[in-house]
Amino acid sequence: MKCMIARRAFLGAALAGAIALQISPAFAQAEYPNQPIRMILGFAPGASLDAMARLMAEPMAEYLGQPVIVENRTGASGNLAAEYVARSKPDGYTILFTGSGGIVVNPATYTNLNFDPIKDFTHIGSLGNADIMMAVHPSVPAKTISELVDLTKQDPKRYKYGTSGAGNTMHVVTELFKQRTGAQIEGVHYRGQGPLTPDLLANQVQISFGTPGDFRSHIEAGALRGLFVMSPRRIAVLPDVATASEMGFPELNRRGWWGWHAARGVPQPIVDKIRAAIARGQTHPVVSEKLRAMGVELEPEAQADFIRRIEDTLKAYKDIASAANIRIQ
Predict the structure, then answer these.
(1) Could you report the per-residue pLDDT of 75-102, keeping only the tens digit for each?
(2) Where are the strands (E) in 2-93, listed by range?
(3) Which of 1, 26, 130, 162 could cross-link with 205 by S-S, CB 3.0 to 4.6 Å?
(4) Contacts with 281 (C-beta within 8 Å, 6 or more apart), sequence order
(5) pLDDT for position 28
(6) CA quadruple 291, 296, 302, 308: dihedral positive or negative?
(7) What is the pLDDT of residues 179-209, one digit of tens each?
(8) pTM of the model as a whole
């Protein structure tokens, strides 16, 4: 008799366990979030990416009902943070916030990454577009792309470009510029925008790509001149700077973005909740105003469109990097 009771108890416990295993994913999704969410960044506090993340963390936390904690995991141009999130549990509690460089540029230029930007991530959604522009020292007489290209062909040693790092976004778009226009310029790769800007202002290098935030104050002061923006339309913070399309080079339209990613396999209902929290931040009057002042163009984007943009841009940047033989170990 005792044996039968024990057996029934065992079978009952096993059945209960099996039922729990079946319903636990749905239960977890319905209860999400029931603990703090960690927003992982690959760059140090004080960077523009960090400022954006902290601006968005508060309205996202208000919507989700749990703290959103910004965590900086620096190293290897953001690759360590990306790898960390790719290897995390796909439950929506660990999310990566990064620029497009961390998802499409680094995989195009680094040869030994420990993650796949397509297979290892759930791409959640974008914050907004990151405009890229070319600034030149005022000593450069060119006022258009064609004039600049002609100058570089006449004297290839005269004009040099500077980038904020070998293998990063600005390096790749500089190579895109050279490949599409035939410009003949040599480059210097700095360790960040900090050391590059003084040399650009001092005419040690004459040409550089960067964000409007990198150059805006210097352009307004007359210390630099914005030559063109790589966007389909002029940007609000520097409306006098023409687009590449206006100068006859629509193939130079290349915009970056900032967005959120998690490990592959996060359930769609959880993704939808995170996207709704992002939308709350994008439409928050104070947060959105501050983001626009930083040069972020807040444009709603469906998740499928975000994924498609990542795939298309990754392929394009791989082609550019391959043609320029950019290989970062």
Answers:
(1) 999 999 999 999 999 999 999 999 999 9
(2) 37-41, 68-72
(3) 162
(4) 55, 56, 58, 59, 60, 127, 287, 288
(5) 55
(6) negative
(7) 999 999 999 999 889 999 999 999 999 999 9
(8) 0.86
